Amino acid sequence: MSEAEAAELLNAMVPLFRIRPVIEDSCRFGGSWASPHAANGRGWAQFHMVTRGACVVERPGLGPQRLEAGDILLLPHGDSHLVRSEVKGAVGRVSTEIRNGVRQRATVDAAVDTELLCGRFLFETSDENPLIAALPDEIILRTAGEPLLERFRRLLLDIREELDAGRAGSEMVAADLARALFVMMLRDHLTGQASGNGTLSLLQDRTTARVVLAILGDLARDWTLDEMAEVAIASRATLVRAFQKRAAAAPMTFLSDLRLAVARKRLAGTLDPIAKIAHEVGYASESALSKAIMRKYGMRPGALREPGSQPRAVSSDTSSQYSTS
Predict the structure, then answer these.
(1) Per the UniProt record, which residue ranges are transmembrane (predicted)?
(2) Nearest one of 110, 115, 126, 116 to 16, comparing CA atoms
(3) What is the pTM of this model?
(4) Pick from 5, 63, 90, 181: CA 20 to 30 A from residue 190's CA?
């Protein structure tokens, strides 16, 4: 995506983001270690910034993802996941100490070779904002050898200091800094060579954007191509060409893929009943959704919920939410 296209899309998206930050953990790990992360529930995004060494992230239904120093992983939908060492073996003991409101986690009796900064963002308007639903499952920024990592790290420390200080307006300042950090992450993702997210690309074209926003607003509807064309104010042929150009997929194929993607996010990010999720994303029954997920991801819906048993509760006091890394 070009700089101009990214700027246009960000200008449309940013006013909709009201973000509250939670800076949670500073991790210093070595040897064999594992850190499971439960689903956060709707409206939460999680991030991990690797400042030294390397680690592996595992998410249900997806392959392992290796991160190394300079990499930042952002999970916009708060999916359950596992962060672990590259070396597998008996997991070592981890000590925990709270310092300046941040959990300091370290492996015991193992030389430190990996360090991470971890936290979360709360999208306060997520239920009313279909553009948040359009964000990809994960965003990975590779910043090794670039000044970006230091800029991101400085912003995180500034956010933490504002929350710790408790001065007048600290929460507003921290929220503005968090929004700036998130926008910087989005900007670098959108302008990267590998950032070809089909849904975001469709939002750049007025014809396809009308359809995408309508679908995201009523995913359970039994959409037809004629109804999509009516929403787009275009002929069926024009709409099909526009979708092929922007997303390399027909409108009905895009709809099917989107429904499964949203279902996977709900399964990984909430404990809503499968039948409820099936209804919300447009499947006639739990069985129909289960079969579609098995075809797409090769596993049953319940398996997409591991690791983690309960989504974290949303508290109004973001400065005290340090439940997991």
Answers:
(1) none
(2) 126
(3) 0.66
(4) 63
